[in-house]
Amino acid sequence: MKKFNVFLYCFLIIVLACSKDPKPDPCETDPQPGCPNYVDPCEIDPQPGCPNYVDPCEINPQPGCPNYVDPDIPVLNNTITIGSVSYTVDSTYTKKIEDGFWYVFAQIKNTSKPLIIHSLRYETGNSGYSIETWVGKDSVTGKETPQAMVARYEQAGREVRAVINGGFYGVAEGGTPMSLEVMNGVMTFPPSSDEPQPIIGFDNKNRPYMDYVELNASVTDKDNRKFNITSVNTTRWADFFVLYNSFMGSRTKTNEWGTEVLCTPTMAQWEKLSSHIDVRCRIDAVESQSGKGSMVIDKGKIVLSGHGTGNAYLSTLKQGDNIDVTVDFFLKSEPKINSTVIRNVVSGYNIILQGNSIIEPNPEQIPDMPLVLDSHPRSSVGFSADSSYVFFTVVEGRRPGLAAGVSTKELAQVMKYLGAANAINLDGGGSSCLMIDKETKNYCTDGAQRAVINGLAIIKK
After folding, report:
1. Residues 419, 426 contacting (CB under 8 angstroms)
2. Which of 7, 106, 155, 277 has its CA 20 to 30 A from that of 22?
3. Rounded to 5 degrees, what are φ and ψ at 23?
């Protein structure tokens, strides 16, 4: 019996021993390096730290990568050629204001040519805005600071995004433009005939145009007699035949030697017409100015004022007659491009950059060569080769040690540096001013903004 119990005990021990699980193989539960079935995760999905890991930021930088460069942000070179010298650009700054708008800043600290550059880069395809001429106090004889213009426009419910000062002006009658000025299709001042000046203009889709222009203005009466209009909103000199509209003010400011005719467009107010070519007008009054002068200009109407031969022609017209009036301009290089296309215009002193080529000042076209050869603060408006970008630019000057200013040729080099292929020289010196979102970007050499006769503004539609 004892032998049987011992046998049973040994049997149970053997059974229990055989029933225990064998020790698991760690290579099967958690393969590690050295196991025959180990698979390196770096070969399946390389991560940072893996010897075969390739940073995707190095292959195709995306937002968030430390080396990502936003293609919408202009990148400036670290050198710029001014004159014949290449200068290091010590500081650049580009800020995307919103889609289609960038503020660009660059500074050269070289003591031989210190420069400070401010520019607004605007994408013309941004259809939410329009580029428009602003006229000082809405008068050809009015002057206004850009800041005052912005306040006036915003009081009228218009949001101004950016503004730059415009063309040169004279001192007669408190300051009038030196050449063509057009505001939303209305010619407020005619092209200069004695000293032709180029224009920078924009159509209703913000496409830019730059060229010299010619005036096409006339009156045709019921007997099909045509008489050429000499000028618009200017002094009526001897033998002049002038058209006046509301931008002249409440009166024509003429003397008593001539005849004036008040006319009403039959389709719409003069300022609201989409075209000023062959506009049918009804004559409201014919007034010989003997002892009178300075006819009242009612809003929406026009006054024709003649002296000499113009006086003789107007004297034949009668109240109630219909006449056809044309006030138009066209580009010299493309006569088919006229006032029905280009709706906003300011004039510059000279074209400085065209087709990526710098235009040397021509003494035959520029009577005051020191004005373009000397270094001054400068303003320019330009556009890219494909017209997709417009540049409002001011280069500071008259700040010893900080900003030396530039000549117009050097201004052209600045505009090329910024990305423009075409550019015009606008009024500079103390007039130079660039505002973006109500902030004046440049130092104004008068110590404050100067009142000027016109400018260009980018305005929310």
Report:
1. no
2. 7
3. -60, 125
The CA distance from 248 to 137, in Å, is 11
What pLDDT does 288 receive?
83
Calculated CA dihedral for residues 387, 392, 395, 396, nearest 10 degrees? 180
C-alpha–C-alpha distance, residues 394 and 106, integer Å: 11
Q: What is the pTM of this model?
A: 0.85
Other beta carbons less than 10 A from residue 49's beta carbon: 7
pLDDT bucket at 43, cuts 50 / 70 / 90: confident
Q: Between the CA atoms of 240, 245, 250 and 254, what dihedral angle is there, to the nearest 10 degrees?
A: 0
Question: What are the start-end ranges of the H helices in 125-281?
Answer: 146-155
Closest CA to 141 of 189, 182, 173: 173
Structure tokens at 423: 């550019």
Spatial separation of the C-alpha atoms in residues 359 and 407, rounded to whole Å: 12
Cα separation values, 70 from 36, 67, 437, Å = 48, 10, 23
Nearest to 133 by CA among 345, 433, 432: 345
Distance set, CA 441 to CA 129, 163, 297, 447 (Å):
21, 11, 39, 13
pLDDT computed for residue 194 by the predictor: 82
Please give the structure tokens belonging to residue 94: 């580009």
Question: How do residues 214-272 score in pLDDT, each as one tens digit?
Answer: 999 999 999 999 999 999 999 999 999 999 999 999 999 999 899 999 999 999 999 99
Strand partners, 338: 330
> What residue ranges do the domains of the chain occupy?
25-68, 119-174+182-187+199-208+342-460, 216-329
Provide CATH code, domain 216-329: 2.60.120
Q: pLDDT digits over 68-103, tens only?
A: 666 667 789 999 999 999 999 999 999 999 999 999
Q: Once rounded to an integer, what is the mean pLDDT over residues 319-341?
A: 98
| CA 157 – CA 459 distance, rounded (Å) | 11
Tokens of residue 313, six digits: 């022609």
